[in-house]
Design brief:
The chain has 309 residues and is mainly α. The chain has 2 domains: 252 residues, no CATH class; 49 residues. The chain is built from 12 helices and 2 strands. Helix 4 packs parallel to helix 12 and helix 10 runs antiparallel to helix 11.
Length: 309
Amino acid sequence: MKKKIFVLVAILLVSVTGCTHTLKDDAKKPVVNEKTGQNLTENILCQPEDEKLLEIYKQYENKMEVKIEDLPKCTNMKIYEKKAYNGLWVQLFVRPLAWAIIQLGKLVGNYGLSVMILGLIIRIIIMPFSAKTAKQQENMKKAQPEIEKLEKKYKDKTDQESMMKKSQETLMIYQKYQINPMSSCLVAFIQLPLFFAFLEAINRIPAIFENTFWKYQLGTTPFVGIRDGNYYYVLLIILIILFTVLSLKQSMNAMNGSPEQMKQTRFMLIFMTVFIGIASVQLPSAIALYWVVTNAFNVIQMLLMKKRG
């Protein structure tokens, strides 16, 4: 069931996404922002505030679907505005989120801080769903012995009648322990589109990726930062890996299963650690900050819920 949900989300995102398009020169090579080291985005949603960057966009205006002068200043962008490349995904997710980051950034004086605060606000909003998911995991842990007995009971039976009985008995166990298989996917179902929306907003709103937070340039990836000798980006990678692993480990510890299942769980934790470590090197700093803060919040939330329970 979980696989079907994730496939459905993936198909939905692919079908409605506006997608970030890289700006390319006449030789079809990406145009690079020398300040941040990132490939510039073609389908930006507002004008850059940096004059040098604005001149670059004017130079390659013929490569863009919308003329620079037809775009609003980022600080003046509206929550809704119809443009040629603004599909349903952009209008429902990316633009409202970008608008919220801009407005909050103007209020607190920094877009990096704005991204982190907004990430926390979203986590607080979805706390009831997170609590429900944690409760479902706890119920599933209690039901696991009965589910294992059921698996053994129908281990060598593959006929249709036995499979129907197995499904009915599984449903009875779920009802006994108040388990809803769908509810465990709720948080992931909400978070996945939001993560991609944050990523697109940062790539498509120049005012965000031009800004800095502490020593971090929000549009720069740790790879580019370290390559340029700014080794404090290593700290960002360490924090991403640390809080993501802690968050995953908490979720996996809440599960219960056979020795084989637990072995697979440990393998998945190792795999995800390596995968996230590699991916973190290529994340814009703004997304990295969002990732660290939201996962740190999740770790603290799970600890408090465990203490209460």
